[in-house]
Automatic annotation (TrEMBL):
Residues 1-146 form the N-acetyltransferase domain. It comes from the Bacteria. This is GCN5 family acetyltransferase. Keywords: Transferase. The keyword NAD does not apply. GO terms for molecular function: acyltransferase activity, transferring groups other than amino-acyl groups. It comes from Paramesorhizobium deserti.
């Protein structure tokens, strides 16, 4: 298994993986739009024997109400082919993405997802409580990459492509 940055030749395979994982095209279309808009900050694939079996994407988070905004990313989506789920591929993609985010100077990563799953990577819903977002609630979580949240409250805006999700 190789975790690597996406390449242009991977685009169709990524679309297939994301569509298969979510059993609909909405998230796959989101990935395509984020890429087209230049908002795919980190886009990684899991490749096994020449086949793309997983994908994760991190996009920019805007913090418009912050007097001193900090670099932040949103993790979404993460996808693994249905027949390969439960093998740790998603976790490998997330860990490598977080490592790259930190090396690029990102201070916080936000995610909307299942707390039981994402807490294993250090995401915590309590750290996101003070941040207003259309996704606020028990499934909205934050992970400070240097150990401390650089702020306790503000507004979190995802890349414009997310607005199409409704």
């Amino acid at each position: 298994m190789i975790i690597r940055n996406e390449e242009p030749a991977d685009i169709a395979a990524i679309h297939h993986v994301v569509e298969a994982a979510f059993q609909q095209s909405m998230e796959a279309d989101l990935v395509d739009r984020l890429r087209a808009d230049g908002d795919a900050v980190i886009s990684l694939v899991a490749e096994d024997d020449g086949e793309i079996v997983g994908h994760v994407l991190f996009s920019p988070i805007l913090l418009p109400t912050m007097s001193a905004p900090f670099p932040a990313l949103g993790l979404a989506p993460v996808a693994v082919l249905p027949g390969r789920q439960g093998q740790g591929i998603g976790g490998m993609l997330i860990r490598e993405g977080l490592k790259q985010a930190e090396s690029q100077g990102c201070r916080v990563v936000f995610v909307l997802g299942e707390p039981e799953y994402y807490s294993r990577f250090g995401f915590d819903p309590a750290l996101a409580v003070g941040f207003a977002s259309p996704y606020s609630g028990p499934y909205f979580m934050a992970l400070p990459l240097n150990g401390e949240m650089p702020a306790e409250r503000g507004r979190v805006d995802y890349a414009p492509a997310f607005a199409a999700l409704g």
